[in-house]
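Weekly structure sync, notes
Attendees: PL (lead), two postdocs, one rotation student
Agenda item 3: pending single-chain targets
PL asked that the sequence for the first pending target be pasted directly into the notes so everyone works from the same version. It is reproduced below exactly as submitted, 71 residues in total.
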Amino acid sequence: KDTSALLQQSKETFGVAFSPGKIFSSQGLHGNRVRLCFAHYDDQHIEEGVARLGRAIRHALQGGAAGGAGV
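Predicted structure, written out during the meeting:
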């Protein structure tokens, strides 16, 4: 389960991005996790981003282009 496929779908379809967890591991672990940046955004943008990410995850879990198995 790797969130890289979800990242591509999230950016293209839902206009939201995150960092796949495995890029923060020297051993390529944590591929099923995401890392979010919220230091530069106000509350309204954070809420909208989380809502979009939620839609992207639901879409993938329901068999969207990113595939439920990839999440």
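Discussion points:
- The longest helix spans residues 43-61.
- The helical segments are 4-14, 43-61.
Action: rotation student to compare against the earlier draft before next sync.
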